[in-house]
Every structure is written in C-alpha cells, then in structure tokens.
Amino acid sequence: MAVVPYKEKESGKKEQVAEMFNNISHRYDFLNHFLSLGIDILWRKKAVKLLQADQPKQILDVATGTGDFALEALSLNPDRIVGVDISAGMLEMGKVKMKKKGVDHIIDMQMGDSEKLLFDDNTFDATIVAFGVRNFENLKKGLSDMHRVVKPGGKTVIIEFSRPRRFPMKQLYNFYFKSILPIIGKLISKDQSAYTYLPESVDAFPDGQDFLDILSEVGYKKIECRPLTFGISSIYIGQK
Length: 240
Ligand SMILES: C[S@@+](CC[C@H](N)C(=O)[O-])C[C@H]1O[C@@H](n2cnc3c(N)ncnc32)[C@H](O)[C@@H]1O
Description:
The protein is built from eight helices and seven strands, in the order H-H-E-H-E-H-E-E-H-E-H-H-H-E-E. It is α/β, with parallel strands linked by helices. The protein has one domain (about 15-240): Rossmann fold (3-Layer(aba) Sandwich), CATH 3.40.50.150. Strands 3-2-1-4-5-7-6 form a seven-stranded mixed sheet, with helices on both faces. Helix 1 crosses helix 4 (about 90-100). S-adenosylmethionine (SAM) binds near residues 17, 64 and 87.
C-alpha cells in the first residue's frame, strides 16, 4: 500500500500529492526554510555544485514546486531551465517568484508529470530533482523518464530525505520529524495531513543502497550516494 497524505480518501497517490501541495503552496517556502533551519538551502547548493564541471546548458528540474532547486541551478549559467510539477498551486507561487527575480526568461515553469515527461529522448544536459522522488506514485517510472530525457553522458542529481541510522541522530530525528514537525506544520499550513505524510513517506522510501539499486535498474551508470547532515538527506547521482 502506497503512503498517501489523505488516508480517508479513495483517490490515488498522485492526485492526493497534487492536492496536498496545492493546499500548502502559500506556506511551502516559509515552512521549508523554517522547519529545516535553512539547511535545505545548503543541501541544494551542494547538489548543484556536483554539476559544475559539466556546465549543463539545458536543465530539467523535475517536481520543481516553487522552483528553489531551479533557482539554485542558475549558478551553473545555463541557457534554459525547465521546471515541471503536477501542482498548479506550487507552480503559481514559483512563477511569481521567477518574475520578481527577473529570471522568468531562463526558468520556464510548466505543468508536467514526472512519470510522463513531454520531452523527446536525449533533450537535456542534466536532470535534477529535490525532495520530489519520494512523492512519485511510480518511482521507477519517474526515474526511467528522467533517464530517457537526459542526453547520453548527462547526469541526474537527486536530493531526498533519508533516515539516519545511528545514535543519537536517529533518536533526535525521530523525535523532531514525528513529534515536533507535524504540530508546527499543521498550525502554519492549516493542512491536517501534510506534515504527518512527510515522516511517513520518508519511512517508506527506499533510501541509500536500495535507491542506488533502483537507479541502476532503470539504466543509470556511475551511481553514487552522498549522505548530508548525519544522513538526514542524501544526494544521489547517476550518469546516462
Ligand atoms: C517537497 S516539494 C519539492 C519542491 C522543490 N523541488 C524544492 O526543492 O523545494 C515536492 C514537489 O513534487 C511534486 N510532485 C510530486 N509528484 C510529482 C510528479 N509525478 N510529477 C511532477 N511533480 C510531482 C509536488 O507537486 C511538489 O511540488
């Protein structure tokens, strides 16, 4: 059984995830930085640096949300970044942000499903995704499609939460993620489920070696996992 935000509803994971992000889109950026104490910004910076040597000119940011990973990727000096997401609410917030920052001519935010990307094979120099893959309804399908649209030799860089395994980080993480974060998240976002879905979806996610195995299965080579901040998150890299 897939972990979904609204267990009482009969709709599928994709529909529920889009609904949840629509509900919290107005508070997403604030909550993200507040609940992570700004560490999420450092994680995105670190991930983008891994593409520095490749100088990708055409980048696809899957599950772009409000576009923070796409914004960070501007440091690579690309010609174009396409951001796709299934949540109209998140995209709307993102589009306003891009316009305000005067980068909407480089970052193109579009409605799009990671499991059915509307791009030809071998279109992008790099594909990236931050905190998105855990929300995919069909993880392998999403990763295969990211692999399909990246050019041969191009890289995919993924950031996702993972579970710290060691004392005392494991205990601290569990306390914060399962007791503190759902209360603050619910109060500020006004969504009943979004911040209980977060730890539940992290628990159900195949992190570390399990994720590397899936990357390899869908065709990636030179796969690598780099744990961040005591293993709370990880960067995964694969090459086509
Ligand atoms: C936690 S947010 C991450 C947003 C952004 N990447 C960031 O770093 O802040 C996850 C996003 O994944 C999107 N998402 C989930 N499943 C998706 C899918 N199948 N295709 C495209 N986007 C998806 C959600 O709508 C949401 O905006």
